[in-house]
Specification:
The chain is of the alpha+beta class and 160 residues long. 30% of the residues lie in helices and 20% in strands.
């Protein structure tokens, strides 16, 4: 094989679109999604009484939550979109908006898919990737359950 066999490789370099658009935030268009939910999360078997206390475990709860939301939005682009609406250092809950694109299924099936996404993707990324397992007690760790959450369907009230 010749040393210069790949000498013209630069002609074949194509930067993947995701990397090419790095740093550009996707514009949220609500009409592109079939349903929207407001999710309120609290830690299951919590070891803290406010998000401020997460710093004892060397965690910045808001920063790591924003990171997971951003990463999941990139991974699940075209299916689901998350937006952190509220997290306050004085409370033990946070609020996320979730928009889901799947229009073909009945509402109950969509809710089951969302629950699966929250329990498998969202919780796992925070539990393992961001080390939130430190914020829950033995019961939560044994059950591998990070959150208790409430899911309310959001209907936008447009003023005329």
């Amino acid at each position: 094989m010749s040393e210069n066999f790949f000498g013209n490789y630069k002609e074949f370099v194509v930067v993947p679109m995701e990397e090419n658009e790095e740093g550009i935030e996707e514009v949220f268009v609500p009409q592109d999604y079939s349903v929207h939910y407001i999710l309120t999360f609290s830690l299951y078997d919590s070891c803290i009484s406010s998000w401020r206390e997460a710093s004892k475990y060397h965690l910045d709860a808001e920063k790591s939550l924003r990171k997971v939301v951003e990463e999941l939005n990139a991974k699940k682009k075209g299916i689901v979109r998350l937006e952190l609406l509220e997290i306050d250092d004085e409370t033990t809950y946070f609020v996320v908006a979730l928009s889901w694109k799947d229009q073909k299924e009945e509402e109950e099936a969509v809710r089951r898919n969302i629950q699966y996404f929250l329990e498998k993707d969202f919780s796992t990324d925070l539990l393992i990737g961001e080390k939130w397992y430190q914020l829950i007690g033995a019961k939560g760790k044994f059950e591998r359950r990070l959150f208790a959450y409430n899911m309310e369907k959001y209907e936008a009230h447009l003023s005329s």
